[in-house]
# Entry
Amino acid sequence: MGQELNGRSTYIVFIWRRWTQYGVRYAGLSQQFYDRLSPGSRDTPCFSASLSPPIPSQLLVFTVGDWSGLSPDSRVDVQLEAKGGEGIRLGTLTCETRCFLWERGPADETTCMTEDGVGELWIKMVLHGQFCAKPNGSNLERRKRKRLTDEENICPNKGSVKGNATQQRSKSSKNSVLFKHSPLGKKAESISGVPTGRWGHALCPVDQETVILIGGQGARMQFCKDSMWKLHTENTTWSPVEAVADGSTPEARTGHTAVFDPESQRIYVFGGFKNRKWFNDVHILDTVAWRWRSVEAKGKVPPLSYHTCSLFQGELFVLGGVFPRPNPEPDGCSDTLYIFDPQHEIWYQPIVLGSKPSARSGHSACLLNRDLYIFGGWDTPVCYNDLYLLDLGLMEFSPVEVNGSSPSPRCWHSAACVSDSRFLIHGGYDGNQALGDTYIFNTVTKTWTSLVHNSLPRSPRAGFSMLPLPGVREDSEACVPRELLIFGGGNNEGHFYCDTVRLQISEIL
# Structure
């Protein structure tokens, strides 16, 4: 079937042997795909979809569905073939890498050229692998689907959320599934195109043209093997990142934070968890040499996940988060502020004044000048929508008395500064479902305003990343953010996003 993409592209989705679905989407042409399938032999199963020339400028090839009917090492080789010409290898689909983006090179048109020009073209897919026997029975399949739905997108701070205007009910359940992972910074096999869908990752800008993605967790609670990616903001293309390490690289994780210090050109990764293992380690990535280094920090800080981390005057301010405690269960939340001094590599707790927010995780923190605004979060069984201010000059907390209605209680949302007096929050999870609404807070008028705009993502999502992209610095002027970047997240019903959304701040304000 055909469908327009950006007004000029089409796609086809077809099913083969019921075990999965394949799709091909291409951009840059007005011609249509033909949904004509050509099954291959039983020994080497293959099939193809034909398309009219010329060769498209881009091809996005993807697969969705159940791979459990195939052996773990199965793969699908995808190539472009032309009648009378040579074929072009496009890429490989696997259970771990289910999509890739191919772009036409200068020599590709000549490769498929014949004496009569570019003739009929095919997208050919060849399966390499063994079929596995699967248990029969509809009841087993229903139990399996229900188990996967219950286990995905579960916060480690388990329990029920109760209450009224500031409280919601939760349907969380325990996570007891263990999966293998690969360390951050190590390039996984068969990576191409775009990062896999995930949530609980960390995203931070390195400069005006580069954003780094670290970690995260995807479908079936599996930690992403393609742990590190670099986004080139000039043309919105992703590429895997390889970095060397002095010693061990940080393990794959979720719920961690990554903060970039422009003075030292370093990314600081702290905390997070994987399965039942919690982290309080600090890892530094030098973005000049692209080298990891593990820090043996002095001082004490508990293992934390789903906390916030903000850089102010060269120090990292870590607030809240989930921490493990064996008894009583479930895991608890922190209400403590910790500061990491990178120069001396030491943790310490500052003396803070005022009325601090209650313990929570999955909240957001936005830094405007020296004011840190903390919104939302949860600590079982309560989900919050209160707003607190931490003056980092005076080290004093104070609740913010807002004018008008506040956003509904939520956690795992994301917040970003859009001017020197306003920040924006989007999405999150209210204890029952993922959210897709957007609000702006004006720090001068102390007012929340609901924002509706066509360019904002419409699909509810939680556990995603949203950050402002700086504009070009002109003379002595400060870098004012001009765009918002949104990546990843999940809908808390088993689906994870891998889309990259860019919004012009001037259009949505």
Notes: Helices lie at 108-111, 138-151, 505-508. The chain has three helices and 42 strands. Residues 1-43, 133-153, 156-183, 185-192 have pLDDT under 50 and may be disordered.
